[in-house]
Design goal:
The structure is a single chain. By secondary structure, the protein is of the alpha+beta class. Helix content is about 35%, strand content about 25%. It is built from 4 helices and 7 strands; from the N terminus they run ααββββαββαβ. It is globular.
């Protein structure tokens, strides 16, 4: 039995070229600000994951079912409606930080922000750092 491949994989596409193509200019500026924030917090250079996710670091996982793969450790995607911010272990233990963050929505591993002006970037830095710390308790994390 073969393990299915993840749809989202690291690519060799240029992060800078991707960020340069983001429209409108306000979304592009927010994406560049997120790139700077993630570089500062992680200390890692970004890599494209799939066509639209900017990832920082990576981890290899193996589930009890035998499914395994590699995924970005943290990152973001500047979508049309929202900036999607990925904290791979999920946001279930981040109630205190989320209460201080500002205007947002979230799913299991994804935080949705309309624009960075709506949130406290210092709190977002805390969330990214804590998310990486939590991820390291499950899987080894490495630069991408």
């Amino acid at each position: 039995m073969t393990t299915p491949q993840n749809k989202t994989r690291a690519t060799e596409a240029s992060v800078a070229a991707f960020l340069d193509r983001i429209a409108p200019p306000t979304r592009r500026a927010d994406a560049r600000a997120l790139d700077a924030l993630f570089r500062r917090v992680t200390g890692w250079q970004p890599r494209m994951w799939g066509p639209s996710m900017v990832g920082y670091g990576r981890y290899h996982y193996v589930y009890d079912s035998g499914r395994e793969g590699e995924m970005l450790a943290t990152g973001f995607a500047p979508r049309k409606a929202n900036l999607s911010i990925y904290i791979m272990p999920g946001y279930q233990d981040f109630a205190a930080e989320l209460a201080r963050l500002g205007k947002h929505r979230h799913g299991k591993s994804c935080l949705y922000v309309t624009r960075l002006a709506d949130i406290d970037l210092d709190v977002l830095e805390e969330i990214v750092a804590r998310g990486l710390d939590r991820l390291r308790t499950y899987w080894p994390v490495a630069p991408s």
